[in-house]
Amino acid sequence: MIVSIARLLPVLGWAILAGVLILTAVGLLGVYASEADEEGPAVQTLRQLGYLGVGLAGFLLIQIVGYREIGRWAYPLFALTLILLTLLVVARNVPMDPIIPARRNAYRWIVLGPINIQVSEYAKVVYILALAAYLRFRTNYRTLSGLLGPFVLTLIPVGLILKEPDLGTSLLLLPALFIMLFVAGAKIKHLLLVTVLGLAAMPAFYFSPLMNDYQKTRIESLFRQGEGDARWRMNEGYQLSQSKIAIGSGGFFGQGFREAAFFRHDLLPEEHNDFIFAVVGHQWGFCGCLGVLICYLVIIVSGLTIASSTSNPLGRLLAVGVCALIFAEVVINVGMTIGLMPVTGMSLPFVSMGGSGLISSFLAVGLLVDVGRRNPPEIARKPFEFDYADEED
Amino acid sequence: MFERRLKAFLILPIICGLVLVGRLYQLQIVQGDEYTRLADAALISPKQFLPPLRGRILDRFGRVLVSDEPAYDVTVHYGVLSMNEGYLLRLAAPLRKKSPRWQAATGDELEAEVKRRIAKMWTTIHEVSGQSIRQLRERRDAVCRTVDRLRQHIAAARQRAGLDQPSERIRLKEEDLFHAVLRDITPKQRTRIELELSNLPFVRVEPSVRRVWTEDAEPLCHVLGGLGQVTADMIRNDPDADDWLACYRAGDEVGVSGVERLGEEMLRGKRGYEERCLDGTLNNHQAPIDGRDVALTIDFDLQRQIADLLVAAVREHPPATGASCVVIDVQTREVLALVSVPTYGATALQQDFTALRDDAIHMPLLFRAVQAEYQPGSIVKPVTLLAGFANKLVTPTETVFCTGQLIPGVDKWHCWTHWRGISGHGAMNAEDAIKHSCNVFFYTMGQRIGADRLTTFSRSAWRGQIDENEPQQGTGLIEERDGLIPTLTWMKEQRHRGFRQADGRNYAIGQGELGITPLLAANLFATLADGRYRAPTIIANDCRQRPASEILGVSPEAWALVRRGLYRCVNEDGGTAFKYARLDGLEICGKTGSAECVPRVIEQRFTFETDEGAGIKQSSIIAPTVEAACEMLDLPYGTACVKAEPLKRYPGLVDDNGEGGKVPTHAWFAGYAPYRDPRIALAIIIEYGGGGGHSAGPVARAIFETLMRCPQDYLGLRKTRLAAGGAP
What we know:
Chain A is an all-alpha fold. Chain A is built from 16 helices and 2 strands. At the A-B interface, helix 8, helix 11, helix 12, helix 14 and helix 15 of A face helix 1, helix 2 and helix 4 of B.
């Protein structure tokens, strides 16, 4: 029985699942420590455990259905997601309370009774799926004009998510696009061209009216951290400064798992969501942070190994996409808590509190593990193995 | 190729991971101690200051006149007073956590709720305290203004030191503190505020102190003075600025008038502080050091009794508007009583301040004893005589014939007999002239001496000044005035002329451009009694150097003559004070005075100019004082007043004959006792009280009677009796 369970997933699959569960546990512990001292049940911890259950159920569901079957629904799912995203954008002008409430002046959630769905979280996964489905067939993108398709496919959800407004999540899709294109075989010089153009356009973007004041402030904060400006530290730079203090005071071994004094007194806003890494850093120290990063690395490396070992084109791209997504999220979120990235309101996958985030991450990882599980026999050369002899020019 | 690119891609997470780990290493290992320190510091509440007790003010015999009593203040965090965005945001965060209702709210809703709670706090404070919203707003703005000004000073100081830091970047400690908006609340008020506002983290009820006057201390109101808000200038010039516990902070109360101000350095104590962790345990503690007491030379009982006498005298002699009396010990020049009437109660200053300020007729806020400069009238005639002797312009035996006016045929330079319908005094020698207060004699003296020499001599007699530019030593009270003795420079600037013969005549009888305060008058007569000038003091054991200085050029015979004249003025029939101030059992010497004066302006039309952006606007209104005018026009205090037209004066012309009439004179009496071995000198003035002898004389007698009855042997009579072998 154990053997059959063990064979349910390949070794890498178990490694990934283990990493994911460790990360979820770290997040739960972080929240529990601060909730345990309060009266009454630890509400957030229990809720997150509930979401964990749902996530695991979704994970299992995907294992049963299979990624290729889901892949057939890639485009319809993508269309549905775009419709939902459009609804969110429209809700700004046409009030749709209580289904689409405005929270802190952002329209990101669809509320169906007790269920809150943060659309952009699921949109990430669906996007990866759709992009992988699109990129399955080569020759589309070895030319510059061929890149147009993927870009359009990307920019529509990016734009919609941006309008919610959710700068962080929208930007997440771009690294995923580039990495998937890169790995799928688009010419490097094309990608470089686009990257350079993008970088060149950034200053224009920064000064255009597309950027809010507070978004500009967040980028400015990166440069002002070292100034010792007391007023900045108390106002715009408050979150970042407190985060650094929390992490820095963790030292090598951390302050201890129960050590939540710093967070109990509301000294770090959003410490359960965007800044959960600061809690980890404070409680588990350098060792803990290293451990968390290693978990993610294990997931990503396992994922990439899966990508290289499978021969299904959809599977390959899907695996790479999921890894790219996780990679980007981790870098942005952790970077944000330590002052290397601007604060963007992006949560840390598996560790942060939040139902939609946890469930969608489990779905993504479910797809990844499923790719690893189903390996068709080796018939033809593995896809995306281009020889230069294949080139027309 | 896919494989290759996969491997290429793999490098990216590894590099990023190394960068992140590197940064984590920097934060956690390299700077770990620093951040641990910051984290620990963040867990500590802002220090709460423990206020010290302010020193007490005591009278001559150690009786407590003013002291601190424990009280409670309602304090509000500076972030709410200044409606600072960052602080309001931080107020919103815990709100979100504490109730599920707010978890799903938008930022705008939370902000609105925070503002609603702040508004509720202000309304509750307004209801509980009875203070108007405008007053509370003023209080709040005052605190914010002081802190702003402090910030500007610091920015300016840093700029001068070469640091380029715009003032918006500077963060003051005051911005993290709670500031008092309501002081000294009653227990009922405290209960209500704690009940209704206990859940708000930005308002507290903090222990504090309040200043309490002892019962019946009203006659001392001007002397004691009051407390007020510390200004930004005071904070800057604070000698204790370097000591973070002893220095002034925005919102502190300091002495602004009277002895509270004079003795500020001694009375102010040093704060203590208490530092607690966020969970309530005590971290650090230092007890406050209370201020030191200030003992005055004033006799509380004597002050009260004299005040009663003055109030009665004012009532008996309408249209008198006020009175003042100063009693000085001749040998030590300690002030035993410094009375100014009308007085006000302790609470009146806070509650009825506007009414007091705008009472332009009685001017209760005026500290007459040291602040009001009156024309001395006849009481300076002894000084004129001494000046004559000093300049060898008069001899003891020479006489001047008084016909009632100085120059026959000229309807000016009359002797006071002219107004009483009596014929002139006839032949007057120096002693007689003092006894009878003959103007004609003194006009003649004035002519001979000349205004220049007379003013020079007066300066040495009144103030002990040889050189006109010498600084004058007084009691040190902020209200104290130096009196007016014109110099040539002053005449040129103010009257655009030099001294004339008419000035000499006027100054000789104490009229014209002269001004003397009751304190100066009393000290003058102490000088006449003693023969030397010495500065007065109101602080017991005053360690300042107060050397006595001789009045130059006056021989012992001249002194004896003048003193005899003063004796005869009171004790011999025909003397101007004989009927009014003579007292059996005590040989009083003194001089009456009826100073001609001008009525007081009590209503003016004030015209202000304000810059309205679109141009200069002029507005004018009729009001008793310029501050009242500002209030009525709703302009800020200090707006430029370009014109003030006097409209009404008080008193009007007093007509006791049914025709014509003149402004009543100020009634003076100044003197000392006993004649042999003088101990006490005093001066009394009743504003617009009429004749000096008639109005002020009896008061002087009553005061000397009081002094005789005092258990303390001020007049030295018991010692004299003992020395003479009599019963004590």
